[in-house]
């Protein structure tokens, strides 16, 4: 077969590359990189505006957009109603929390932003001595802004008789630090009520999404507590736990424990920055393709964003009228 390239057909005519060639190739490479970066930035801006459009309130957006670190845009998917304290979570709390766990006791709710219902009214009906709701962002149900991995520093050890933490621990990258804080702020004999998502539950933000826990994980993580109730969420993949801190508490070592991560799609000890970047790229490409291939999906996304906006307005209204 004859080669089509005249220079390669006549290698004698090939001249070595000169400085001009090198400059031209360099310029072409730079232009290509710049074009790719511009295209990527457009995708990024599009996703960021999608993200902003879906945020529940501006405070939430501001706090999370300034606290973005390496994974700002990994969570353009926003939670729908089923992602937050669902009716089964509320029923679990109502059934498991007894008056003696609550009455006149110091209660803290971690990740307390009330979006779609919360256990606060159930607990307050049992007359706690003191109830404080903490979250990363201000809003309904939030009394103090505090990171869940900073609780001991903010409140001190052994300060609360009841710790409630619903639908939060799947969202914290350093789950060990948060679990340790939840355990340490409890007084010996105090109660922890925790709900979270299990493998099979879809990826959702708030502000990020990292982990899934099953019942075996809960048994391992709380092997230093007395587990009083441990059950699956009857409505969707999830797990509910009630556990008591023993009088003599010695914290277990979880440094080697692996959890299922929605970022790495396998069990992992930690999520590395590299895993997040790979996830971001995969995720963006999938979303882009979905919106190109399925315009109906785009319409549905817009409709969901509109519903969320309406919900935000309703929350703001409720906040103002309080
Ligand atoms: C899915 S929402 C659940 C809200 C509420 N607990 C419920 O059950 O409906 C997760 C909440 O956890 C909060 N959150 C996420 N990471 C947190 C952290 N490191 N410290 C404190 N709160 C956090 C988010 O701001 C958000 O309000």
What distinguishing features does this structure have?
alpha/beta, 322 residues, binds S-adenosylmethionine, 10 strands
Q: Briefly, what is this?
A:
The protein has 322 residues and is of the alpha/beta class. The protein is 43% helix and 17% strand. The chain has two domains: 58-76 and 274-321, no CATH class; 81-268, Vaccinia Virus protein VP39 (Rossmann fold, 3-Layer(aba) Sandwich), CATH 3.40.50.
Describe the secondary-structure layout.
Layout: H1 6-9, H2 19-54, H3 58-65, H4 87-96, H5 99-102, E1 106-110, H6 120-124, E2 130-135, E3 144-145, H7 151-155, E4 160-166, H8 175-184, E5 186-197, E6 211-212, H9 215-221, E7 226-232, E8 238-244, E9 259-261, E10 266-268, H10 273-293, H11 295-321
Parallel strand pairs: 1-2, 1-4, 2-3, 4-5
Antiparallel strand pairs: 5-8, 6-9, 7-8, 9-10
Written account of the structure:
With 322 residues, this protein is α/β, with parallel strands linked by helices. The protein is 43% helix and 17% strand. It has two domains: 58-76 and 274-321, no CATH class; 81-268, Rossmann fold (3-Layer(aba) Sandwich). The chain has eleven helices and ten strands. The chain is elongated and about 90 Å long. Bound molecules: S-adenosylmethionine (SAM). S-adenosylmethionine binds next to loops.
- Tell me, rounded to a whole number, the average pLDDT: 83
> How many distinct helices?
11
- Estimated helix fraction: 40-55%
Name the helix and strand elements from N-terminus to C-terminus, one letter apiece: HHHHHEHEEHEHEEHEEEEHH
Query: Largest sheet, described in full?
Result: 7 strands, mixed
CATH architectural designation of the largest domain:
3-Layer(aba) Sandwich
Q: Over all CA atoms, what is the radius of gyration?
A: 25 Å
Order of strands across the biggest sheet?
Answer: 3-2-1-4-5-8-7
Distinct compounds present: S-adenosylmethionine
Unreliable residue stretches: 51-82
The CATH superfamily of the largest domain bears the name Vaccinia Virus protein VP39
Classification by helices and strands: alpha/beta
Approximate shape? elongated
CATH topology of the largest domain: Rossmann fold
Strand content: 15-25%
Structure summary, number of beta strands: 10
Q: End-to-end distance, in Å?
A: 83 Å
């Amino acid at each position: 077969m004859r080669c089509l390239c005249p220079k390669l057909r006549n290698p004698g005519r090939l001249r070595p590359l000169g400085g001009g060639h090198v400059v031209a190739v360099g310029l072409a490479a730079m232009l290509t990189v710049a074009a790719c970066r511009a295209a990527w930035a457009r995708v990024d801006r599009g996703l960021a505006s999608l993200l902003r459009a879906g945020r529940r309130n501006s405070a939430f957006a501001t706090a999370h957009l300034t606290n973005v670190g390496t994974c700002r845009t990994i969570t353009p998917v926003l939670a729908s109603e089923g992602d937050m304290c669902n009716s089964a979570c509320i029923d679990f709390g109502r059934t498991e929390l007894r008056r003696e766990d609550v009455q006149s006791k110091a209660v803290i709710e971690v990740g307390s932003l009330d979006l779609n219902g919360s256990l606060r009214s159930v607990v307050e009906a049992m007359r706690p001595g003191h109830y404080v709701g903490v979250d990363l962002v201000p809003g309904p149900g939030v009394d103090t802004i505090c990171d869940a991995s900073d609780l001991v520093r903010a409140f001190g050890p052994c300060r609360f008789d009841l710790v409630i933490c619903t639908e939060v621990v799947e969202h914290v990258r350093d789950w060990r630090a948060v679990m340790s804080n939840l355990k340490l702020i409890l007084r010996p004999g105090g109660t922890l009520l925790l709900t979270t998502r299990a493998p099979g539950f879809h990826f959702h933000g708030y502000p990020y999404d990292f982990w899934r826990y099953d019942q075996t994980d809960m048994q391992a993580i709380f092997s230093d507590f007395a587990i009083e109730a441990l059950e699956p969420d009857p409505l969707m993949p999830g797990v509910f736990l009630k556990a008591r801190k023993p009088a003599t508490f010695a914290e277990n070592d979880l440094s080697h424990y692996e959890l299922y991560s929605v970022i790495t799609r396998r069990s992992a000890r930690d999520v590395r920055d590299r895993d997040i970047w790979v996830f971001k790229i995969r995720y963006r490409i999938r979303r882009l393709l979905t919106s190109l291939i399925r315009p109906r999906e785009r319409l549905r996304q817009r409709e969901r964003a509109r519903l969320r906006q309406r919900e935000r307005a309703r929350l703001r209204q409720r906040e103002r009228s309080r």
